[in-house]
Amino acid sequence: MDKKKSLRVLILVNLLIMLLLTAAVPLPKFSSFATNSEKSDLIALRVDNYSTSNAYLWLNGPAFYYIAVKPGESKTFTVLRGEYLKDVSYCGARDSSIIELTKHTRLIMPVCGANSRQSPNSPHVVNITNTIKIVKVTVTNDADSKVLAILTGPSTYVFSLNKGVSKDYTIAKGDYEVQYFACGKYGVREFSAYHNGVLKLKCPK
């Protein structure tokens, strides 16, 4: 009888130990991953593309990553922790800068040309318009013919407008050299792109 009791006690102790060990295993939730990831070489990078254009992201650092996010999509990627050279192509503009990916990071791409007054409180929530400024401009053809315009500056753009037409575009903020062809002639002028700026093109003199 004593041997049977000892065996039962031993079995109960083993079951209790197994139960305690099982309860100590963390559940596979993102919050658990976020807590424990600081000891890991991997972090989560979330990209929110609220624009109406495709967004492309190249990361060059501890590893190389190419990321593409469609308009209106949000995607989360797993990348190696570290410092990266970040190249972004977004809303017809491109920019290069350094980004520290040491913790879970969210990269926000607002609507093209939106006024980005929002400054995230966390350094790990990055508004892409803090480094790449996108503005809405209007290009107007006041010439007596069709106009072909090439803008060279922070980015390069080619616009073609029929006579008497005005169109709105979103482009990178900054100073441009404008080469344009109209009325059988070639002209060059300067243009500073700012929010709601207007570029009027006439027949070159």
Would you spell out the secondary-structure blueprint of this structure?
Elements: H1 2-23, H2 30-36, E1 42-49, E2 55-60, E3 64-69, E4 74-80, E5 82-90, E6 93-101, E7 105-109, E8 125-127, E9 134-141, E10 147-152, E11 156-161, E12 166-172, E13 174-182, E14 185-193, E15 197-201
Parallel strand pairs: 1-7, 7-8, 9-15
Antiparallel strand pairs: 1-4, 2-3, 2-5, 5-6, 9-12, 10-11, 10-13, 13-14
What's a quick, concise take on this entry?
This protein is mainly beta and 205 residues long. It is built from two helices and 15 strands.
Task: Please explain how this structure is put together.
The protein has 205 residues and is mainly β. The chain is 14% helix and 50% strand. The protein contains two helices and 15 strands. The strands form four sheets. Strands 4-1-7-8 form a four-stranded mixed β-sheet, with no helix packed on it. Strands 3-2-5-6 form a four-stranded antiparallel β-sheet, with no helix packed on it. The longest helix has 22 residues, at 2-23. The protein starts with a helix and ends with a strand.
